[in-house]
Amino acid sequence: MNAHRLSQRLRSSLRGWGGVGAMAVACVLTVVFVLLPLSQSKGADGSVGTGGQGVADGRQAKAEECANPQDQSLSPTGGGATTTIDEIKARKDRRLIVGVDTNSYRWGYLDPTNASGALEGFDIDLVHRIAQDILGDPNAVSFKAIPTSRRIEAIESGEVDMVVRTMTITCDRIEQVAFSAPYFRTGQQVLAPKNSTITGYNATLADKKVCSAESSTALDNLTADKGDKIPASTDISTTVPNQLDCLVKLQLGEVDAVVTDGALAASQAAQDPAVELKGAPFTDEYYGVAMNLKADDLVRQVNRTLRNYIDDGGWQASYAKWLHATLDQGEKKSPSATPPTAHYR
C-alpha cells in the first residue's frame, strides 16, 4: 500500500477523535511516510532488553554502579585537540549533521501551515544555536530524521554528528554515547483517553495494553516494573520505532495507554483533546545532546553553547515559545520550566 492510500485510510479511521487532533496526527503521518527512507529502522541498538527478570536485575546492577548520569559530562572549559570540530569545518558541504525528530509536536516537527517547510520546535532551536557557535551560521545544518530506535546506532556509525531528539541521559546510554550536560528535565507519564479508567502508573493498568517506543526509557521502566509497580497482567508487548506511532495506535483503539516522557505526552495531548495525562510523573529524567564517545571537543563545545544559551535567555525564550502552553498551568510553572543546573565529572 502506498503512502497516500495508507494516509487516507488512517484519516478515515481517525474520524470522531476531534478535528484539530486528528488532522494534526494525519498531517504528521504523511510527513513520516515521506521521510521513511531516511529513518528506516535497522533494529534495536542493544541498549534495551526485551523482558524478563534478567533485564530488571541487570538494570538494577548498572544503577548501583552509576549515580546521576546527567552529571557525567565533560566541563566546557577543558582544552585538548579539536579534531572532530576541525573535520566538521573542513567539509565541502560545511554543515553540522544532526539527527532529530520530525514528528514531535513543539519539539521537532514540520508544521503543515508553515509555508517555508522548515523544521520547528524546542530541540530545533537548540540545534540552530549549536550550529551558530560552531560554524557561524545557525542554518548550517543538515537535519536527518532518526527514529527513537536508531538514535545510538546513528551516532556510533558516524551517520550524524549528534542527536538532539528528546533523548534521556541514562546509565546504559553513557556507556555507548557521550552526552552533553542536561538541557531539559522531565519524567515518565501515562497518556490515555480522557474517559479511560486508567488513573496513572499504577494498578489501573491491569489487563491493559500499553504502548512504548523501542529503545526508550519508557520501555526500560515498563519491563523492570511489571509485576511490581504495575500489575503483571499489563500487556507491554506493543512497541514502535517512533514514539508518535503510539498515539496513533491509541487513537485507533489498538492500545489502552501510552507511556512516554511527560513533556512529549503533554504536546500530544495538545494535539488531540480526547486524550490526557494520567497521574504524576513517576521518574525524574534529563535530556541531553548525544555525540560519539570519542568526540570530546564537540562535547565541550556543546556544553559551552548550553551554558551561554541558558545565561543569555535563549533557552527561556524557546521554552516560552514552544512549551509554556502545554506544560505550565496558569500561574503554576512546571518543574521543566527551569533549565537544569549543569554539574560535570
Topology:
Elements lengths: L2 H11 L5 H17 L17 H13 L17 H7 L6 E5 L2 E2 L3 E3 L8 E2 L1 H14 L5 E5 L5 H6 L5 E2 L14 E2 L4 E3 L1 E6 L15 E5 L3 H9 L9 E6 L3 H8 L5 E5 H10 L3 E4 L6 E3 L2 E2 L4 H16 L2 H9 L1 H4 L18
Parallel strand pairs: 1-5, 1-6, 10-11, 10-12
Antiparallel strand pairs: 2-3, 3-4, 6-15, 7-15, 8-14, 9-12, 9-13
Helix pairs in contact: 1-2, 2-9, 3-7, 5-10
Principal-axis shape: globular
> Whole-number average pLDDT?
84
Biggest beta-sheet profile: 5 strands, mixed
Structural class: alpha/beta
Could you tell me how far the N terminus lies from the C terminus, measured between alpha carbons in angstroms?
51 Å
Cα gyration radius (Å):
20 Å
Topology, number of strands: 15
Helix content: 25-40%
Give the number of helices. Answer: 12
Report the β-strand fraction as a percent range.
15-25%
Flag low-confidence runs: 1-63
Order of helices and strands: HHHHEEEEHEHEEEEEHEHEHEEEHHH
Q: Please state how the strands of the largest beta sheet are arranged side by side.
A: 5-1-6-15-7
How would you characterize this protein structure?
With 345 residues, this protein is an alpha/beta fold. Helices cover 36% and strands 16% of the residues. The chain has a 5-stranded mixed beta sheet. Helix 2 crosses helix 9.
Could you provide a short overview of the structure?
This protein has 345 residues and is α/β, with parallel strands linked by helices. The chain is built from 12 helices and 15 strands.
